[in-house]
Design goal:
Length: 257
């Protein structure tokens, strides 16, 4: 894995492999052992041998499934950890819109649903929304990192305050400068996050307005067409009734033989 902060072909290959490897391993570990004893059970020539192979098949199935579950849990945990490290590496160089699929676990349920809706109905809005999501993720990560670093600085200041018999004023000043810098970074990131959330709401509102306007326009067209055809339909129905009445009157006027 490279350290330039960009996605590589190797990363994509590993991600695809980890997508299927846990489940393939589960099948490969849990099924073959009992199948072997089942084959021997079917081919057994004596009752004692059949009973033994049946018992061994059950035992192998239980043991194989147990081992397979442990391996599955380990691989799922390793995959989760690997993907987290991959996201951290990608974020270190700035998150781009094309990398949003890798950060889906960090999106809220509402954001995932909105993105899915945009991708299905409006690719242009989907592109713009991914750009905003990338900014939102970077601002959120920056705030979390600032909070974590601030907590570490505070702990160091508390430890320095407990040290007696040596001058720690210079180090305390450096830590307070770091504290001021981190607070400033946190405030700027919070401001950017608020702006990003406002832009997300604006995009969602605009997209909803455009989509509803398109649906309304189609409905109005259909209603107009129906209203235009309504007089013609009524006239045709009236002509049919007039023709039916004339036919009935003609039948009534005919003499009975």
């Amino acid at each position: 894995m490279t350290t330039d902060g960009r996605l590589t072909t190797r990363d994509e290959t590993f991600a695809q492999m980890f997508k299927w490897l846990p489940w393939l391993t589960f099948v490969a570990v849990s099924f073959p052992p009992p199948l072997i004893f089942l084959v021997l059970f079917v081919g057994a020539t004596t009752t004692e041998a059949a009973a033994l192979y049946a018992f061994l098949a059950i035992l192998a199935a239980a043991g194989g499934i147990g081992v397979a579950v442990l391996i599955l849990l380990f691989l799922l945990f390793y995959r989760k950890r690997w993907l987290k490290r991959l996201r951290d590496r990608l974020a270190s160089n700035g998150i781009t819109a094309s990398e949003i699929p890798w950060f889906l676990p960090e999106l809220t349920t509402s954001e995932r649903q909105t993105l899915k809706q945009f991708e299905a109905n409006s690719p242009l809005f989907a592109d713009a929304y991914r750009e905003i999501l990338a900014s939102r993720l970077m601002a959120t990560r920056l705030i979390s990192r600032s909070k974590r670093d601030l907590l570490l600085v505070e702990r160091r200041l508390n430890k320095l305050a407990m040290i007696q018999g040596t001058d720690t004023s210079a180090l305390q000043k450096e830590l307070r400068d770091d504290q001021i810098r981190l607070n400033t970074t946190k405030q700027e990131a919070s401001s950017r996050l608020a702006e990003t959330q406002a832009r997300m709401q604006m995009i969602e509102a605009t997209a909803s307005r455009d989509l509803s306007h398109g649906d309304t326009y189609v409905m109005l067209q259909r209603l107009t067409a129906a209203q235009e055809h309504l007089p013609l339909t009524i006239e045709m129905a009236q002509q049919e009734r007039d023709a039916l009445e004339e036919a009935e009157q003609e039948i009534q006027r005919r003499p009975v033989a």
